[in-house]
Specification:
9 helices; 338 residues; Rossmann fold; globular; Ribonucleotide Reductase Protein R1, domain 1; 3 domains; OB fold (Dihydrolipoamide Acetyltransferase, E2P)
Amino acid sequence: MSKRKLNIQQQRRVLKQRFKSADQQNSQAQPGLVITNFGQRLLVEDEQGTIFNCAVRQHLGKLVAGDRVFWETDTEAGRGIVSAAIPRHSELARPGFRGQTRMVAANIDVVGIVAPIEPGVHPDMIDRYLVAAAQLDIPVALIINKIDLLTSDEDWEELAEILLPYDEMGIDIITVSAHLTDGLDDIKAFLNQKTSVFVGPSGAGKSSLINALVPDLAIRTSSLSAATGLGVHTTTNSILYHLPCGGDIIDSPGVRRFTPSPCSLSELEGYYPDFAPFLGQCRFDNCTHQHEPDCAIRKAVETGDIAESRFASFQSLRQEFAEHFNLSGGQKHRDKVK
Protein backbone atom coordinates (compact mmCIF):
# COMPACT_ATOMS: atom_id res chain seq x y z
CA MET A 1 0.00 0.00 0.00
CA SER A 2 1.46 3.35 -1.02
CA LYS A 3 2.20 5.95 1.61
CA ARG A 4 -0.29 8.83 1.74
CA LYS A 5 1.25 12.13 0.68
CA LEU A 6 0.93 15.11 3.00
CA ASN A 7 -0.13 18.46 1.67
CA ILE A 8 2.11 21.50 2.12
CA GLN A 9 0.38 22.68 5.33
CA GLN A 10 0.62 19.23 6.90
CA GLN A 11 4.27 18.92 5.91
CA ARG A 12 5.06 22.26 7.54
CA ARG A 13 3.30 21.25 10.77
CA VAL A 14 5.36 18.05 10.89
CA LEU A 15 8.56 19.99 10.25
CA LYS A 16 7.64 22.52 12.93
CA GLN A 17 7.21 19.73 15.48
CA ARG A 18 10.57 18.24 14.49
CA PHE A 19 12.05 21.71 14.73
CA LYS A 20 10.83 22.02 18.32
CA SER A 21 12.07 18.54 19.25
CA ALA A 22 15.55 19.23 17.91
CA ASP A 23 15.64 22.59 19.65
CA GLN A 24 14.78 20.97 22.97
CA GLN A 25 17.65 18.49 22.51
CA ASN A 26 20.18 21.22 21.77
CA SER A 27 19.40 24.51 23.46
CA GLN A 28 22.63 26.04 22.11
CA ALA A 29 21.48 25.74 18.50
CA GLN A 30 19.27 28.24 16.72
CA PRO A 31 17.16 27.76 13.58
CA GLY A 32 18.40 29.02 10.25
CA LEU A 33 17.71 28.98 6.52
CA VAL A 34 20.37 28.03 3.98
CA ILE A 35 20.76 30.83 1.43
CA THR A 36 23.48 29.18 -0.65
CA ASN A 37 26.21 26.58 -0.58
CA PHE A 38 29.69 27.61 -1.72
CA GLY A 39 31.96 24.61 -1.38
CA GLN A 40 32.69 23.55 2.17
CA ARG A 41 30.64 26.35 3.74
CA LEU A 42 27.10 27.74 3.76
CA LEU A 43 25.50 31.12 4.05
CA VAL A 44 22.81 30.73 6.72
CA GLU A 45 20.19 33.32 7.63
CA ASP A 46 18.96 33.53 11.22
CA GLU A 47 15.43 34.46 12.30
CA GLN A 48 16.34 38.17 12.40
CA GLY A 49 17.50 38.15 8.77
CA THR A 50 21.23 38.31 9.47
CA ILE A 51 23.43 36.13 7.26
CA PHE A 52 26.31 34.10 8.70
CA ASN A 53 29.17 32.23 7.07
CA CYS A 54 28.95 28.70 8.49
CA ALA A 55 30.88 25.46 8.37
CA VAL A 56 28.94 22.17 8.25
CA ARG A 57 29.21 18.97 10.27
CA GLN A 58 30.47 16.29 7.90
CA HIS A 59 27.73 13.78 8.68
CA LEU A 60 25.01 16.11 7.41
CA GLY A 61 25.81 15.61 3.73
CA LYS A 62 25.20 18.18 1.01
CA LEU A 63 22.93 21.07 2.04
CA VAL A 64 21.54 23.55 -0.49
CA ALA A 65 19.44 26.68 -0.80
CA GLY A 66 16.11 26.18 0.95
CA ASP A 67 17.34 23.73 3.57
CA ARG A 68 16.24 24.38 7.18
CA VAL A 69 18.99 23.82 9.72
CA PHE A 70 20.17 24.40 13.25
CA TRP A 71 23.46 26.19 13.70
CA GLU A 72 25.62 27.32 16.60
CA THR A 73 27.84 30.35 17.06
CA ASP A 74 31.50 29.54 16.58
CA THR A 75 34.32 31.17 18.49
CA GLU A 76 35.17 33.25 15.44
CA ALA A 77 32.99 36.37 15.40
CA GLY A 78 30.31 36.44 12.74
CA ARG A 79 30.69 32.78 11.88
CA GLY A 80 29.03 29.58 12.94
CA ILE A 81 28.68 25.86 12.41
CA VAL A 82 25.63 23.94 11.19
CA SER A 83 25.00 21.11 13.63
CA ALA A 84 21.69 19.63 12.40
CA ALA A 85 19.42 19.61 9.36
CA ILE A 86 15.65 19.41 9.35
CA PRO A 87 14.28 16.68 7.02
CA ARG A 88 13.16 18.10 3.67
CA HIS A 89 9.61 17.89 2.40
CA SER A 90 10.88 18.13 -1.20
CA GLU A 91 14.15 18.31 -3.08
CA LEU A 92 15.14 18.95 -6.67
CA ALA A 93 18.28 17.31 -8.04
CA ARG A 94 19.96 16.85 -11.38
CA PRO A 95 22.61 14.43 -12.67
CA GLY A 96 26.17 15.46 -11.92
CA PHE A 97 29.54 14.16 -12.98
CA ARG A 98 30.12 10.40 -13.28
CA GLY A 99 26.51 9.52 -12.53
CA GLN A 100 26.40 11.33 -9.22
CA THR A 101 23.32 13.32 -8.22
CA ARG A 102 23.73 17.05 -7.68
CA MET A 103 21.23 18.77 -5.39
CA VAL A 104 19.66 21.97 -6.72
CA ALA A 105 17.12 23.18 -4.14
CA ALA A 106 15.26 21.97 -1.04
CA ASN A 107 11.81 22.48 0.49
CA ILE A 108 10.31 23.96 -2.66
CA ASP A 109 6.55 24.41 -3.10
CA VAL A 110 6.32 25.31 -6.80
CA VAL A 111 8.53 25.12 -9.90
CA GLY A 112 8.77 27.75 -12.62
CA ILE A 113 10.09 26.34 -15.93
CA VAL A 114 11.63 29.27 -17.80
CA ALA A 115 11.62 28.79 -21.58
CA PRO A 116 13.05 31.67 -23.66
CA ILE A 117 11.98 32.84 -27.12
CA GLU A 118 15.69 33.06 -27.88
CA PRO A 119 17.54 30.75 -28.22
CA GLY A 120 14.20 28.90 -28.47
CA VAL A 121 11.27 27.21 -26.72
CA HIS A 122 12.10 23.50 -26.81
CA PRO A 123 9.39 20.97 -25.83
CA ASP A 124 11.95 18.31 -24.88
CA MET A 125 13.44 20.62 -22.22
CA ILE A 126 9.99 21.53 -20.94
CA ASP A 127 8.87 17.90 -20.74
CA ARG A 128 11.94 16.87 -18.77
CA TYR A 129 11.26 19.44 -16.08
CA LEU A 130 7.54 18.55 -16.10
CA VAL A 131 8.47 14.93 -15.31
CA ALA A 132 10.74 16.09 -12.48
CA ALA A 133 7.95 18.26 -11.02
CA ALA A 134 5.49 15.36 -11.33
CA GLN A 135 7.93 13.07 -9.51
CA LEU A 136 7.94 15.58 -6.65
CA ASP A 137 4.17 16.13 -6.88
CA ILE A 138 4.80 19.90 -6.99
CA PRO A 139 2.72 22.48 -8.92
CA VAL A 140 4.43 23.95 -11.96
CA ALA A 141 4.09 26.94 -14.27
CA LEU A 142 5.58 27.35 -17.72
CA ILE A 143 7.15 30.82 -18.00
CA ILE A 144 7.78 31.96 -21.56
CA ASN A 145 10.43 34.65 -21.32
CA LYS A 146 11.62 37.32 -23.77
CA ILE A 147 8.26 37.72 -25.53
CA ASP A 148 9.38 41.18 -26.65
CA LEU A 149 11.31 39.28 -29.35
CA LEU A 150 8.05 38.15 -30.97
CA THR A 151 7.61 40.67 -33.78
CA SER A 152 4.86 39.24 -35.98
CA ASP A 153 1.58 37.33 -35.93
CA GLU A 154 3.42 34.37 -37.45
CA ASP A 155 5.80 34.33 -34.47
CA TRP A 156 2.89 34.23 -32.04
CA GLU A 157 1.13 31.50 -34.04
CA GLU A 158 4.27 29.37 -34.05
CA LEU A 159 4.60 29.77 -30.28
CA ALA A 160 0.91 28.95 -29.75
CA GLU A 161 1.34 25.72 -31.69
CA ILE A 162 4.27 24.68 -29.50
CA LEU A 163 2.38 25.50 -26.30
CA LEU A 164 -0.96 23.93 -27.30
CA PRO A 165 -0.28 20.50 -25.69
CA TYR A 166 0.56 22.16 -22.36
CA ASP A 167 -2.48 24.40 -22.47
CA GLU A 168 -4.67 21.35 -23.12
CA MET A 169 -3.12 19.64 -20.06
CA GLY A 170 -4.14 22.63 -17.92
CA ILE A 171 -0.59 23.78 -17.15
CA ASP A 172 -0.28 27.43 -16.14
CA ILE A 173 1.45 29.37 -18.93
CA ILE A 174 2.82 32.83 -18.17
CA THR A 175 4.27 35.00 -20.92
CA VAL A 176 6.73 37.57 -19.68
CA SER A 177 9.42 40.01 -20.69
CA ALA A 178 11.92 40.87 -18.00
CA HIS A 179 13.11 43.72 -20.25
CA LEU A 180 9.65 45.29 -20.57
CA THR A 181 8.35 43.97 -17.20
CA ASP A 182 5.29 42.54 -18.98
CA GLY A 183 3.74 39.62 -17.13
CA LEU A 184 5.57 40.17 -13.84
CA ASP A 185 2.30 40.55 -11.91
CA ASP A 186 1.23 37.09 -13.10
CA ILE A 187 4.52 35.61 -11.91
CA LYS A 188 4.18 37.34 -8.54
CA ALA A 189 0.71 35.86 -8.12
CA PHE A 190 2.08 32.37 -8.87
CA LEU A 191 5.01 32.75 -6.46
CA ASN A 192 3.14 34.56 -3.67
CA GLN A 193 3.96 33.21 -0.17
CA LYS A 194 5.69 30.10 -1.56
CA THR A 195 9.22 28.81 -1.84
CA SER A 196 9.83 28.45 -5.55
CA VAL A 197 12.67 27.59 -7.90
CA PHE A 198 13.30 28.80 -11.44
CA VAL A 199 14.72 26.11 -13.72
CA GLY A 200 15.66 26.10 -17.36
CA PRO A 201 18.58 26.14 -19.79
CA SER A 202 21.49 28.55 -19.75
CA GLY A 203 20.47 31.82 -21.38
CA ALA A 204 16.79 31.45 -20.45
CA GLY A 205 16.87 34.72 -18.50
CA LYS A 206 16.15 33.26 -15.06
CA SER A 207 18.48 35.70 -13.33
CA SER A 208 17.03 38.63 -15.30
CA LEU A 209 13.54 37.67 -14.16
CA ILE A 210 14.67 37.47 -10.55
CA ASN A 211 16.37 40.84 -10.95
CA ALA A 212 13.02 42.29 -12.09
CA LEU A 213 11.17 40.60 -9.20
CA VAL A 214 13.71 41.68 -6.56
CA PRO A 215 14.47 45.40 -7.13
CA ASP A 216 17.40 45.53 -4.68
CA LEU A 217 19.02 42.36 -6.02
CA ALA A 218 22.32 44.11 -6.74
CA ILE A 219 22.60 45.16 -3.09
CA ARG A 220 21.76 41.67 -1.88
CA THR A 221 24.22 40.10 -4.32
CA SER A 222 27.01 42.37 -3.13
CA SER A 223 26.20 41.44 0.47
CA LEU A 224 26.31 37.72 -0.33
CA SER A 225 29.56 38.10 -2.25
CA ALA A 226 31.13 39.91 0.69
CA ALA A 227 29.93 37.18 3.05
CA THR A 228 31.47 34.40 0.95
CA GLY A 229 34.62 36.33 0.12
CA LEU A 230 34.36 35.06 -3.46
CA GLY A 231 33.74 38.36 -5.22
CA VAL A 232 30.93 39.11 -7.67
CA HIS A 233 28.31 36.40 -7.82
CA THR A 234 27.46 34.41 -10.91
CA THR A 235 24.86 31.65 -10.89
CA THR A 236 27.13 28.64 -10.52
CA ASN A 237 25.21 27.44 -7.46
CA SER A 238 21.63 27.86 -6.28
CA ILE A 239 20.87 30.99 -4.25
CA LEU A 240 17.70 31.88 -2.33
CA TYR A 241 16.24 35.39 -2.38
CA HIS A 242 13.28 36.79 -0.45
CA LEU A 243 10.55 38.27 -2.62
CA PRO A 244 9.05 41.67 -1.73
CA CYS A 245 5.60 40.25 -2.53
CA GLY A 246 6.11 37.42 -0.02
CA GLY A 247 7.80 34.06 -0.35
CA ASP A 248 11.24 33.00 -1.55
CA ILE A 249 12.71 32.34 -4.98
CA ILE A 250 15.70 30.08 -5.65
CA ASP A 251 17.84 30.90 -8.66
CA SER A 252 19.37 27.71 -10.04
CA PRO A 253 22.27 27.30 -12.49
CA GLY A 254 21.31 26.73 -16.11
CA VAL A 255 22.13 23.34 -17.62
CA ARG A 256 22.51 22.23 -21.20
CA ARG A 257 20.37 19.13 -20.79
CA PHE A 258 18.41 18.22 -17.68
CA THR A 259 17.41 14.65 -16.88
CA PRO A 260 14.89 13.75 -14.15
CA SER A 261 15.40 10.82 -11.81
CA PRO A 262 15.28 7.49 -13.72
CA CYS A 263 12.07 5.56 -13.13
CA SER A 264 10.16 2.55 -14.42
CA LEU A 265 8.28 2.58 -17.71
CA SER A 266 4.89 2.51 -15.98
CA GLU A 267 5.92 5.44 -13.78
CA LEU A 268 7.18 7.42 -16.79
CA GLU A 269 3.87 6.83 -18.58
CA GLY A 270 2.07 8.18 -15.52
CA TYR A 271 4.07 11.41 -15.68
CA TYR A 272 2.60 12.08 -19.13
CA PRO A 273 -1.06 12.91 -18.34
CA ASP A 274 -1.94 13.23 -22.03
CA PHE A 275 -1.12 9.51 -22.39
CA ALA A 276 -3.65 8.52 -19.71
CA PRO A 277 -6.74 7.98 -21.97
CA PHE A 278 -4.80 5.46 -24.08
CA LEU A 279 -2.86 3.49 -21.49
CA GLY A 280 -3.94 -0.14 -21.15
CA GLN A 281 -5.31 -0.21 -24.70
CA CYS A 282 -2.18 -1.56 -26.41
CA ARG A 283 -2.22 -5.17 -27.61
CA PHE A 284 0.70 -6.07 -25.32
CA ASP A 285 0.82 -5.30 -21.61
CA ASN A 286 4.55 -4.66 -21.83
CA CYS A 287 4.30 -2.36 -24.84
CA THR A 288 7.12 0.19 -25.03
CA HIS A 289 5.28 2.15 -27.76
CA GLN A 290 8.18 1.79 -30.18
CA HIS A 291 7.47 -0.86 -32.82
CA GLU A 292 4.88 -3.18 -31.28
CA PRO A 293 1.73 -3.77 -33.38
CA ASP A 294 -1.60 -2.25 -32.30
CA CYS A 295 0.02 0.33 -30.01
CA ALA A 296 -2.65 2.73 -28.74
CA ILE A 297 -0.10 5.44 -27.90
CA ARG A 298 1.40 5.52 -31.41
CA LYS A 299 -2.07 5.50 -32.91
CA ALA A 300 -2.98 8.51 -30.76
CA VAL A 301 0.10 10.29 -32.09
CA GLU A 302 -0.95 9.52 -35.67
CA THR A 303 -4.46 10.91 -35.06
CA GLY A 304 -3.13 14.03 -33.33
CA ASP A 305 -4.51 13.14 -29.89
CA ILE A 306 -0.95 13.12 -28.54
CA ALA A 307 1.52 15.73 -29.78
CA GLU A 308 4.49 14.34 -31.72
CA SER A 309 6.84 16.46 -29.59
CA ARG A 310 5.48 14.89 -26.42
CA PHE A 311 5.87 11.38 -27.82
CA ALA A 312 9.44 12.17 -28.91
CA SER A 313 10.43 13.44 -25.45
CA PHE A 314 8.82 10.37 -23.85
CA GLN A 315 10.84 8.01 -26.06
CA SER A 316 14.02 9.99 -25.40
CA LEU A 317 13.57 9.63 -21.63
CA ARG A 318 12.55 5.98 -21.95
CA GLN A 319 15.79 5.22 -23.79
CA GLU A 320 17.93 7.15 -21.30
CA PHE A 321 16.31 5.39 -18.35
CA ALA A 322 16.75 1.99 -20.02
CA GLU A 323 20.46 2.69 -20.46
CA HIS A 324 20.69 3.85 -16.84
CA PHE A 325 19.20 0.65 -15.45
CA ASN A 326 21.30 -1.54 -17.75
CA LEU A 327 24.52 0.23 -16.80
CA SER A 328 23.66 0.00 -13.10
CA GLY A 329 22.93 -3.71 -13.36
CA GLY A 330 19.15 -3.41 -13.21
CA GLN A 331 17.10 -6.37 -14.41
CA LYS A 332 15.44 -5.84 -17.80
CA HIS A 333 11.70 -6.07 -17.24
CA ARG A 334 8.82 -3.64 -17.21
CA ASP A 335 9.38 -2.71 -13.56
CA LYS A 336 12.51 -1.04 -14.90
CA VAL A 337 12.39 0.37 -18.42
CA LYS A 338 12.65 -1.67 -21.59
